[in-house]
Design goal:
Shape: elongated
CATH topology: Rossmann fold
Order of helices and strands: EHEHHEHHE
CATH superfamily: Vaccinia Virus protein VP39
Helix content: 25-40%
Pfam families: Methyltransf_11
Strand order of the largest sheet: 1-2-4-3
CATH architecture: 3-Layer(aba) Sandwich
Keywords: Methyltransferase, Transferase
Largest sheet: 4 strands, mixed
Distance between the termini: 20 Å
Protein name: Methyltransferase domain-containing protein
Organism: Streptococcus pneumoniae
GO molecular function: S-adenosylmethionine-dependent methyltransferase activity
Structural class: alpha+beta
């Protein structure tokens, strides 16, 4: 990060760290630019959310785990504790209640090029989704949360 040491009171990484290849380096840099007493807020996905759920629906058609586990709710505190004095976790309990198969088919097809699931034939996707809908709805778990890490010394 191209800022001087102890520049910021607060740093925010909103749904970002799961894209970062070198998590220790990123967190070291965040710690460096935070002032003593500063707070790092970072929101991230869990390993049991939307994408992983959709991947599980098509496990017979493709052999792929879509979820990036670089930085998740499950392992984030372990990473953060190496660089920050205290780390709290806030979980956001939520789910998607999907009522349109067409919209969900389009969403899954948008994975094309980054996932085998997006390359499945529309009819295969549609039939699988139809079998999962119950009373006109498919409930998909979402797993999101935020870590609040403090630099105390």
């Amino acid at each position: 990060i191209s800022f001087e040491n102890e520049t910021f009171d607060i740093v925010i990484a909103n749904m970002l760290l799961h894209h970062v290849n070198d998590i220790p380096k990123a967190l070291s840099e965040v710690n460096r630019v935070l002032k003593t007493g500063g707070i790092f807020y970072c929101a991230t996905f869990g390993e049991n959310g939307v994408v992983n759920y959709l991947a599980s629906l098509f496990k017979d058609e493709v052999n792929q785990d879509l979820e990036n586990r670089t930085f998740t709710l499950q392992n984030g505190k372990r990473y953060l504790s190496r660089y920050f004095n205290s780390v709290d976790t806030l979980l956001y309990d939520d789910e998607l209640q999907v009522t349109s198969i067409d919209d969900l088919v389009k969403y899954i097809q948008s994975f094309k090029g980054i996932s085998e699931i997006g390359s499945l034939e529309e009819e295969i996707i549609r039939k699988r989704l139809e079998s999962e809908f119950n009373n006109g709805m498919l409930i998909i778990p979402k797993e999101y949360g935020m870590f609040i890490a403090r630099k105390e010394s």
